[in-house]
Amino acid sequence: MTSPSIDPVPPSEWPAFTPVTTSSPPSPPDMPTSWSATVLLQPFSPPQYSPPSEDSPFFELCVADLKYMAATYFYANIYGCSSGNTWEYLVGTDGTQMRFNSGAWTSVEMGWSLPSNWLGDEEQNAVCCGASPLNWMKAQTCEWWRVPVPHTSPPAATWAWFDASTGAPVRMMFGQGPMASPDMGDPTQLAILQMFSFSYFPVFTPNDPTLPKSVDGAMNLAVSTPAFDGFVAGNPNLYENFVWNGNFGMTAFMTPVNEDFAPLPTRVLYVWKPDHEYEVYSDRAQNTLMDYTYNPEAPIEQQEALLTGPAPLLVSPGPENSDCSWIINFMRNGDIQCAGPNEGFAFPQEPPDWVSIAPVEGTIQATITNNPVLCPNQVITVFSVLFPPSSPNYPESTYLWTWYAPQNASGTESRPVTFMQSQSGVNLGTSLALADYFYYEVYKEPIEASNFDVPAECSPCNS
């Protein structure tokens, strides 16, 4: 992996996979014959057009207790963090039953099938990209598994992360939402969990001997509000929205929802000088350099997204190359290819307070404190951000989910943990939907401006 000598991020800080050698090729962990779990469920979108019906908890942040008995049932008790409602689902060999707020059980058609493995009907096509912690907190080392979603072209990807030591599920990301409608599932995908874009498993108990052995027994399970250590819905600590520092570097694994791509080790440099210091376009610029180490069949060696921000109003219209963007491909054969706004890459730099600027309406949906699986010795704020719609099922908006660890009492100084865009376009570039952050450093000295040089192969751009 190559980086300019002026790059302040050491090459050793880029994330990397270690090979999984338990078998050749690696095999996904088995779904135990019986298990129970508590799961944090993050939806694809808020309600679309009208309030959701009572059989749809799929438009709000939820916590669920899950119980599974092989070849018999898959049960979920789902609690809506905003509404306070509960939905119970019982998927059996003969279909699905549901009850709302402990009412009567009724048969419902959800499009689900009783699962037999973690990765749906396409398990035989699952690929393990390697092992790595999820982020800088290094709570555990996970195997990163990718599986194609049937009936999509180009193929979308579902991602699953399993604890490399225990085989327990830690996280799942469904790159493709339900295709028939937001509340109608696909029998080839994992029942219930497929209805949410991003899920974490803070509690998992394999081969749970306390579970009932029959569907009738599961229908009579005692119902309580699902919860896990450290989780509180809302914003009880009254944290404010984070504001990015104006001079930092970080690294990440960027994970696509296109089944053709493996995660990309990535380095980000970000500069945003205040109005009175703005003189040239590189005073507000971002360089995101993505490496194709784990995509050896791609003709690209590295790809750079070079973004610049707008000049202050007093400087308007600003110098050449301000408020512009380019995607630059460094090919394995030595060529350089560049596309800018005129070629369809029009994504200028976001300001440090982007999460607070309309219409994104960034909201702290929950906090998690010192959970051993999700955030040992840290406090996490779980933000939802409104993102553009995705046709046809999400015509109003989708969700972006991002987690931050407050570094001061107000939360304005926060360290990024993860950034996930629900329903990201599979046919857009490398279809990146997820960033998991590792190295992060706020620099005392200004980042060298030449890190933001526009290659000669790129057309200049005026704001």
Which key phrases capture this entry?
463 residues; eleven-stranded antiparallel sheet; 38% strand; 23 strands; mainly beta
Task: Describe the model.
- With 463 residues, the chain is mostly beta strands.
- The protein has one helix at residues 215-219; strands spanning 34-43, 62-69, 73-80, 86-92, 95-100, 106-108, 127-133, 141-148, 157-163, 169-174, 196-206, 231-233, 247-256, 264-272, 284-291, 300-308, 325-331, 336-339, 363-369, 379-387, 398-406, 414-421, 432-442.
- A twelve-stranded antiparallel sheet has the order 12-19-20-21-22-23-13-14-15-16-17-18, with no helix packed on it.
- A hairpin with a 7-residue loop joins strand 7 (127-133) and strand 8 (141-148).
- The longest helix is centred in the middle third of the chain and has 5 residues, at 215-219.
Radius of gyration of CA atoms, rounded to a whole number: 23 Å
**What is the CA–CA distance across the termini?**
33 Å
Overall geometry comes to globular
* Number of beta strands: 23
Global mean pLDDT = 93
Largest sheet at a glance? Answer: 12 strands, antiparallel
Report low-confidence residues grouped into runs of 5 or more.
none
Content-based structural category: mainly beta
Number of helices: 1
